[in-house]
Give the backbone structure.
Amino acid sequence: MLRGDVKRLNTEYDVIIVGLGPAGVTSLYELSRLGFKVLGVESSKILANKPCGEAVPKQLFSTVKINPDEVNSYPVRNVVIDLEGKKKLLQFKSVVGYIIDKRLLLELIVKNAIDEGATTLLGVSVENVEADGRVKLATGDVIRGQVVICSDGVLGPCFRHFKHYTFIGAYQCKAQCRICEDETLYLYFRRDLTGYMWLFPKSNNMCNVGVGGLKIKPKHYMEHLLKTLTSKFNLRILRCDGGAIPALGPIGNVVNGRLIAIGDRAGTAMSFTGEGIRPAIISSIYASKKVREFLDGVSNSLNYLKEFMKEWGWRIDNSSKMLRMFLKTPGFLRKIVIERLNEKLALKVLFGETLGLTLKYG
Ligand SMILES: Cc1cc2nc3c(=O)[nH]c(=O)nc-3n(C[C@H](O)[C@H](O)[C@H](O)COP(=O)(O)OP(=O)(O)OC[C@H]3O[C@@H](n4cnc5c(N)ncnc54)[C@H](O)[C@@H]3O)c2cc1C
């Protein structure tokens, strides 16, 4: 792993990956294990520096072939929905998901990629990318990839090459939570239902507290909420950061010349729930397959979107439809929907399954 050591870099790669979030690290691993010369560049000196609630459905682990224990996962069996004081408890028969240590997950995937021959450059920003595969680093160095994977999230430098999209503002804190209920997610909806707050318990009395919504100013709302929550859960806030989650589904065109967009850059997050880690990873697996075919000369197209949407990504479309519908529904009806939510329906919402289609990835 090179930490800012640009001098040891080569100038030509089969694949350059811009941004090492869940999407980027997955491509780093998938393509290096196929024997390609792959470089991953990440602006942050440490992985998973971006704010995140770290909640994932249990199905993620069969996709990444990692055991939940390896990433300090804390199980989720129950969900409490609080509609400004009116509470509802959903109790699932078994573990439905986990609150993970996202940094451990990304570090593990990067370690596996490095074992397969990948190179990573941490703590160096990509300043610019060109559609012909040139990547300019903030150090002034220019390197070139046969393919450049844009996994730079919502706000990274590949922005100008792809369609822009609406995003949901979000604010996330890490806190000590002395009286969080065991294995229970807590979701708090405000009265007008334009945004919601989450409290995700982790091991060692830690938790992730966050807030997001399309029509709210999350920081402002969070500050207001924290006053209530701090006394309710005896929270001790350690660190807070703002972020953004893509809303309303994937961009139509994920390829521009030799550039290919995946994860948040391609808008793959589930709009209704804000779940983005697993969709980013799965989009990366589909994209890596296409990159392989392109570099092996089997295909002249890098466009993975059709297969991805047909086999898995339709959930993202469903999730966007749910969000659009929910926003259009009058307030009193939204309340009824939330009040009527049961375990079965909650899982359908989580998996974007309203149309009754089947799961491919577990
Ligand atoms: C507040 C908040 C809470 C969330 N909670 C959850 C949750 O509980 N569960 C869930 O599944 N999803 C959650 N998400 C969504 C999830 O975090 C994202 O969908 C997911 O991380 C997307 O992965 P990605 O790899 O596409 O992008 P990112 O994780 O954004 O990774 C992009 C990477 O690119 C790097 N980068 C950016 N610019 C440059 C540059 N110029 N040069 C080099 N590198 C650069 C960034 O540092 C970053 O590491 C949340 C998002 C937010 C904002």
